[in-house]
Amino acid sequence: MYRFVTSLRSSKDHFSRSGRRCFARVPERATSFSDNEETSVLPVMPRFDYAPPAYTGPKADEIARKRKEFLSPSMFCFYKKPLNIVHGRMQYLFDENGRRYLDGFGGIATVNCGHCHPDVVQAIVNQTVNIQHSTILYLNHAVADFAEALASKMPGDLKVVFFTNSGTEANELAMMISRLYTGCQDIISLRNAYHGNAAGTMGATAMCNWKFNVVQSGVHHTQNPDPYRGAFESDGEKYAKDVEDLIQFGTSGQVAGFIFEAIQGVGGIVELAPNYMPNVYSTIKKAGGLVIADEVQCGFARTGSNFWGFQNHDIVPDIVTMAKGIGNGIPLGAVVTTPEIAKVLTRRNYFNTFGGNPVSTAAGLAVLKVIEREKLQENAHVVGTYLKERLIALKDKHDIIGDVRGRGLLLGVELVTDRELKTPANAQVLEVMDSMKDLGVLVGKGGFYGNVFRITPPLCFNKQDAGAFESDGEKYAKDVEDLIQFGTSGQVAGFIFEAIQGVGGIVELAPNYMPNVYSTIKKAGGLVIADEVQCGFARTGSNFWGFQNHDIVPDIVTMAKGIGNGIPLGAVVTTPEIAKVLTRRNYFNTFGGNPVSTAAGLAVLKVIEREKLQENAHVVGTYLKERLIALKDKHDIIGDVRGRGLLLGVELVTDRELKTPANAQVLEVMDSMKDLGVLVGKGGFYGNVFRITPPLCFNKQDADFLVDAMDYSMSKL
Ligand SMILES: Cc1ncc(COP(=O)(O)O)c(C=O)c1O
User: Fold this and answer.
1) How far away, in angstroms, is 196 Cα from ligand 1 center?
2) How far apart are CA 318 and CA 97, in angstroms?
């Protein structure tokens, strides 16, 4: 947030009034402004140096009139005054007046590469001028090339692709294939799921507001493993038991399949409880069924941590369906399965006129290349994690936020008027959406009650878009500038920092702090020293070194601790030019470079690589942090949960407002946890922060045990 000290009237003058604007135009006066104009908090949209072409087409009113007269009355629009969107570029949309909007919905999780991404557009144009449609009755390389590329993104034996034109069609086909392959009819889907709206898929969709009163046979709906609203909270195994019961008491004991979204999209970005899918997977296998992953919303790198959503659940499905992000907006869907299962379709003719259309598949291939080259999966992970953290922080400020959830750039914020009762605040969602639109930000909504913001932007979304505004980090960085100006000659030797302060109590540096400090130090002629003693060697999970989470490259990096897995060893790494200064005198260290220590160091690097410990620190650390954050709702004594990877901190306070350190309670909980068999550290200036920095081979069960022990110990306080 940028705190304007000028009046709104004058701030408005910063923005161009021409029809072709590069910047967002600020509304006359948004409802969320405070009454005090001098201190109003006004979000500022990040710069985007692009001017859309002037629009001369029909205006909103005329389109709305035509739509009312000639299009289905079932079609609805967002916003009291619907937007006429006429142009798009990357993560931005433009209306008929050239006003720019930050697109936080991405055409419903579809425009993954960014609006009108030049590579995708070019692929479409190139293909269109050659041959636009021929059907798969003739050979054409576009469909074959894309099928090959898509299959290469799949694990296991998932190598055969059928193209369709939508997610609904893909799921219809997947359900039919599973019925044919197993000879069974019964399919199980989750309550609150959305899988499409044709005859079969409407049966699998399980929200009454999306189900028409027509025949929808052969689908059973199991309890939704919804950690926020579900009966068993985050206990995936208990929900999984319902699938077992359903098969035993509601079917012949054999089923055709189980269809699921790794994160429910239309249902309101609902993550499946941990441990649910592996249990359900084995239940379905025992009942002879196939597992179908509906990746229509989760696929194509959206969840950040993996390319496919199901990969976050440690299973490999038998059939994967996809659409939305597959073609960045071009109508396309697909079903991928194994060669053996795919054979069932040879029993009759199976044909789809537009399926595998060369223009659509050329777009699909371009999408895969863009995701790869522009590292959109990594970006979805980094920006999504950052955005989620900022949204979680908002929860402390606004009681109306009941839950923040999701993964990567598939995030949900559920509004409730009462946190205890979880009363859906759907009217407020509409109000906030409208107000955000006035400020230039578009988000979606969903959930059974319509009370969940769905944040599914193009995957090129960046941290400025996520924060959208000046972050506190920039203000802190200003202090370094002042310090140099008023406390030194104006030149400094250097700046030393921990990417996450360890002994200080796992304190993360505010977003945007380091890039700003970096340039300040450079201007003052100094070197930037990253002290990686605690953060290095894969501990933060997202990167091997902590400084890499701050988008800077330091001049000197220091390390110890994790370098030798416990053997006494430390190191300083710098550039050849800087290193030369030590040749001015003798520099010697008796044990520095000791062969035993350095042999251990080399072994450590190999183990981290081979055992994928960085990945594990990320996966288990993210899971552990989420569980610790959930504990915060239960125990008022938890003031803050923070950190990254397996470098986590839990700060205890006796009063959340005053942040009074609860150091005695930390000792008590530590002792009680020890009695239960769990050891954690403590730190922070006041000694009131648990430091959770286990070996990086820690697994999810270990994480569960730690959280359960902490929960139990805190309950006794
Ligand atoms: C998870 C999921 N599956 C299937 C579908 C249906 O896709 P389509 O609208 O392309 O038919 C959707 C649409 O939102 C979806 O979110």
Assistant:
1) 5
2) 48
| Structure tokens given for 198 | 């044709």
CB of 296 closer than 6 A to ligand 1?
Answer: yes
With a 6 Å cutoff on the Cβ, whether 625 touches ligand 1 is: no
pLDDT attached to residue 472: 62
- What share of the chain has pLDDT > 90, as a percent? 86
Q: Which homologous superfamily does the CATH classification assign to the domain defined by 614-715?
A: Aspartate Aminotransferase, domain 1 (3.90.1150.10)
Give the other-Cβ count within 10 Å of 497's Cβ: 21
Topology of the domain covering 472-610: Aspartate Aminotransferase; domain 2 (3.40.640)
Q: Is 195 in the pocket of ligand 1 (CB under 6 A)?
A: yes
Cα(228) to centroid(ligand 1), Å: 23
pLDDT value at residue 42: 63
Q: Please choose from 320, 324, 328 the residue to mutate so as to test ligand 1's pocket, defined by most ligand atoms within 8 A of CB.
A: 324
Q: What is the CATH number of domain 167-319+342-351?
A: 3.40.640.10
Ligand 1 pocket: which of 110, 195, 308 to mutate (most atoms <8 Å of CB)? Answer: 195
pLDDT exceeds cutoff 60 at 35:
no
Centre of ligand 1 from the C-alpha of residue 266, in Å: 8
Distance (angstroms) between ligand 1 centre and the Cα of 210 equals 12
Is the distance from the beta carbon of residue 444 to the nearest atom of ligand 1 less than 6 Å?
Answer: no
Q: Which atom of ligand 1 is nearest to the CA of 169?
A: 11
CATH 3.90.1150.10 in the chain is located at 2-113+377-467, 614-715
Query: Measured from the CB, is residue 295 less than 6 Å from ligand 1?
Result: no
Query: Cβ of 338: how many Cβ atoms within 10 Å?
Result: 17
3-state DSSP call for residue 252? coil
Residue type, 594: N
89-110: average pLDDT: 97
The label of the residue with tokens 């730690």 reads: 706
pLDDT at 41 over 90: no
Question: Whose CA is closest to atom 1 on ligand 1?
Answer: 296
| 398 CA distance to ligand 1 middle (Å) | 32
Distance CA 191, CA 197 (A): 15
Protein residue closest via CA to atom 4 of ligand 1: 195
Tell how far the Cα of 322 is from the centroid of ligand 1, in angstroms. Answer: 8
* Residue in 263, 297, 354, 360 to alter for ligand 1 test, most ligand atoms within 8 A of Cβ: 297
CATH 3.40.640.10 boundaries in the chain: 167-319+342-351, 472-610
Task: Give which of 152, 163, 193 is closest to 294, Cα–Cα.
Answer: 193
What phi and psi, each to the nearest 5 degrees, are found at residue 254? -120, 145
145: number of Cβ within 10 Å: 15
User: Residue with the nearest Cα to atom 7 of ligand 1?
Assistant: 167
Nearest residue (by CA) to ligand 1, atom 14, is 266
Rounded to an integer, the average pLDDT of 4-17 is 30
User: Does the structure show a pLDDT above 50 at 635?
Assistant: yes
Identify the architecture of domain 2-113+377-467 in CATH.
Alpha-Beta Complex (3.90)
Give SS3 for 173.
helix
The predicted model gives 551-558 an average pLDDT of 96
Q: What is the mean pLDDT of the chain?
A: 92
Q: Distance (Å, rounded) from C-alpha 466 to C-alpha 383?
A: 7
Regarding the beta carbon of 297 and ligand 1, being less than 6 Å apart is answered yes
424-458 pLDDT per residue, tens: 999 999 999 999 999 999 999 999 999 999 999 99
Question: Region 631-650: what's the mean pLDDT?
Answer: 95
3-state SS, residue 161 = strand
- Angle between helix axes 358-373 and 118-130 (nearest 10 degrees) is 150
For the cut 90, the answer to whether the pLDDT of residue 657 exceeds it is no
Strands (E), 2-108: 2-3, 41-42, 85-89, 92-95, 100-103
CA of 167 from ligand 1 middle (Å) equals: 5
Binned at pLDDT 50, 70 and 90, residue 609 comes out as very high
